[in-house]
Design a protein that fits this description.
With 333 residues, this protein is of the alpha+beta class. 29% of the residues lie in helices and 24% in strands. It binds 2,5-anhydro-1,6-di-O-phosphono-D-glucitol (AHG) and manganese (II) ion (2 copies).
Length: 333
């Protein structure tokens, strides 16, 4: 049990570490935390709240929506529509952006309301991912183009993991902090400050069932991991794949590792499975802020100039030395 009084998210956002953010952003983060507490409560109720199973609808990605995808999306939309802190929102579950009714604020919020949808019904960790941008347009109405900013322009990003504990992981560009939900008090408390990803690792995460479709540099890297202590890497590797990016990235933030969802040749014109603006960018911001690295094999993900709201990207992120090695394999193949 912790001996001293824990620091709440609210107190932390008022501390000098967060002095670089304005009041609106601070309150926006607290709004997000409150929305995710509601989602967490629904997740815990599961079948009792009738939120498991398919909604029978599809999203713009061509994926079947789960009831919880829609529920989480609605919670976030409702909570942020009238705060005066946002100009518009965008979501994995909505084809178009959602300009907020008056009062209009200065931030843009993007989210993957429910990440890891295939894990909902099997009671495995899932999460909500968010990215916050400034609305730099002077136009009176927000357009999709205003959201097409590179990840390096994010002013805050994070996720809430609904696992054995509900944990909020946050960066505003001054390192990464983790906050655990106290279920009795319905409040997040600081539980892991200035998280650092170890530079080296012996653990990789990739959906191995796609191996025959990968590009040669990815096949080479994974084969070298699999060859273990008798191969060129001279060490045995472990593999994990939770199929919820939030849970895989959380493990990497805690103990290191590398996560890959690479391009593959089944759909050569599709850059990858994961979405740039509300999956890869926020996760890349967190990973870099924790001393890790993130690329698409060719360039840093945070440097990519998006051209579409739901654009996809190949993702390789985690322990810095490992990501650098995979990048080198892409450049030399
Ligand atoms: P979402 O549930 O938001 O569509 O995202 C799922 C993503 C990501 O969380 C995970 O890493 C990946 O899809 C899993 O894909 P596979 O089922 O192909 O392994
Ligand atoms: Mn997702
Ligand atoms: Mn999702």
């Amino acid at each position: 049990m912790p001996s001293s009084q824990p620091t709440s998210l609210h107190e932390c956002l008022k501390s000098t570490k967060y002095a670089g953010i304005d009041q609106d952003l601070s309150l926006l983060i607290e709004d997000l935390a409150a929305s995710c507490i509601s989602i967490s409560q629904a997740v815990q109720q599961g079948a009792l709240a009738n939120i498991l199973g398919s909604a029978g609808t599809g999203n713009v990605q061509g994926e079947t929506q789960q009831k919880l995808d829609i529920y989480a999306n609605d919670v976030l939309l409702n909570a942020h529509s009238h705060t005066g802190r946002l100009a518009a929102m965008a979501s994995e579950e909505m084809e178009h952006i959602y300009p907020v009714p008056n009062p209009v604020g200065k931030y843009l919020l993007l989210f993957d309301p429910l990440d890891g949808s295939s894990n909902i019904d099997v009671n495995v960790s899932i999460g909500t991912i968010f990215s916050i941008l400034k609305n730099s347009s002077s136009a009176s109405t927000v357009s999709e183009a205003d959201f097409l900013q590179s990840g390096s322009r994010q002013v805050a990003a994070g996720y809430v993991l609904y696992g054995p504990q509900t944990i909020l992981v946050l960066t505003v560009g001054a390192g990464v902090d983790m906050f655990t939900l106290d279920q009795q008090k319905n409040q997040f408390f600081l539980s892991n400050e200035n998280v650092q990803i170890p530079k080296d690792t012996k653990e990789f995460a990739i959906n191995m069932s796609n191996m025959r479709h990968w590009a040669p540099p990815v096949v080479r890297y994974v084969n070298e991991c699999l060859s273990g202590s008798t191969g060129v890497r001279n060490k045995d590797f472990n593999m994990r794949w939770i199929a919820s990016m939030v849970a895989d990235v959380h493990r990497i933030l805690i103990r290191g590792g590398v996560f890959m969802y690479p391009w593959d040749q089944r759909e050569p014109n599709k850059p990858g499975k994961l979405r740039l603006l509300y999956e890869a960018n926020p996760m890349s911001f967190l990973v870099e802020q924790a001393g890790g690295a993130s690329c698409n094999g060719e360039v840093r993900i945070l440097d990519i100039q998006p051209s579409q709201l739901h654009e996809r990207v190949s993702v390789i992120l985690g322990s810095k030395n490992e990501v650098d090695l995979i990048m080198k394999y892409h450049k030399t193949n």
